[in-house]
Amino acid sequence: MQRLILLILMGQSWSITGQLYEYKYMNTPKSWEDARQHCIQHHTDLATVTNMTDMMRLKKAANHIPQTGAWIGLHKSGNSDRKWHWSLPGLEFNETNWGSGESSSPNEYCGAISKNLVWVDHGCNAKKPFICYNETSERFFFIGDTKTWFEAQRFCRSNHTDLVSGLQQLRDGNLEAIIDPEKFSSYVFVYIGLFSDAWEWSDGSSFSFRHWDKNYSDNDKYAMLTETGMLTTNSSNKPFFCYEDHVILINESRTWEEALYYCRHHHHDLVTITNLDEQRWVQEKTKKATTPYVWTGLRYTCTLGFWFWVSDEVVRYKNWASPGQVNECDMSGAMETGGDHKWFKKHDEEKFNFFCSK
After folding, report:
1. pLDDT of 265-276, one tens digit each?
2. Model confidence, pTM
3. Start and end of every C-type lectin domain (predicted)?
4. Using one digit for the tens of pLDDT, what is the confidence trace for 56-83?
5. SS3 letters for the chain?
């Protein structure tokens, strides 16, 4: 145990918190395909964008977005199969509550709910009331001012967090309380953060973030960031954004100490997760794991009685599975591969895949 504590303390003292990935702006215009090849050869891939914070990071990386716009990694998949997503990033789309005959109607690619909270597919350009969710206040807001689905999404992101999304929010008792039955009877359906499209990220990740300009065309194949900070489509040569990934999943089963040695010898350290955005970035990679859990840089000190990150970060953001898990000596933190990707306290002699930071 003393040797392991010494190993942790002798590790690198700096961390890359908030930099699990970074954006690089390339101002040489290229086609989308050529831009992607450049990014793969010199960095990781064309930029993947996970949320509104990333949109601000892109604009900062470029200093100024040109009038022509700049490519990112969002593109139309070759088979054009549409998939349903949640507007609020980071939510899995698995269990559903569709009404009979819903979810597959042609040209109805946005989701709404009826007064009994059953889901229906709906045309995106129809003007309907909608429900916003505010992550800071954990409150719902029924907006009776009717808008198209994309207008509603932009309104919620500008004034709150996003359109109401995910089963947990839709089953919250407070949601039903804010819905005005009289308004519902007038409009029949109300928009929620549910949409279907055939767009994918070039690196293969399943992030659902979209932030389309009202003039975008669903018939084009490639997406770019405009100077207004919205996404639209085009086909001519553009500057582009690459991203550099600083997290790597190691598909080898090792004890926590072996994983720590490996990361510090071959990369930088076991990964540190300090906020929800970083959690979502890391959990996306668990889809390629071969073990039920994946080691992180979380470690419990039995002597001092608290959890810490080996990068020397304080554990402020937490995503533990159950408060009933007991703290014991020789325990480290692992993220579950499936489910909600919660953190579990595991004996450090168990063998799992692991995340290194680069």
Report:
1. 999 999 999 998
2. 0.85
3. 23-133, 132-219, 243-357
4. 999 899 888 888 899 999 999 776 688 9
5. CHHHHHHHHCCCCCCCCCCCEEEEEEEEEECHHHHHHHHHHHCCEECCCCCHHHHHHHHHHHCCCCCCCEEEEEEECCCCCCEEEECCCCCCCCCCCECCCCCCCCCCCEEEECCCCCEEEECCCCCEEEEEEECCCCEEEEEEEEECHHHHHHHHHHHCCEECCHHHHHCCHHHHHHCCHHHHHHHCCEEEEEEEECEEECCCCCCCCCCECCCCCCCCCEEEECCCCCEEEECCCEEEEEEEECEEEEEEEECHHHHHHHHHHHCCEECCCCCHHHHHHHHHHHHHCCCCEEEEEEEEECCCCEEEECCCCCCCCCCECCCCCCCCCCEEEEEECCCCCCEEEEECCCCEEEEEEC
Please give the domain boundaries of the chain with CATH numbers for all domains.
2-18+246-357 (3.10.100.10), 21-81+199-244 (3.10.100.10), 83-197 (no CATH)
- Whether residue 356 contacts residue 263, with contact meaning beta carbons closer than 8 Å, is answered with yes
Could you tell me if 36 and 189 are in contact, meaning their C-beta atoms sit under 8 angstroms apart? no
Residue 9 has pLDDT above 80, yes or no: no
Distance CA 49, CA 62 (A): 15
How many residues comprise the chain?
A: 358
Tokens of 78: 């070759």
| Residue 64 or 34, more confident | 34
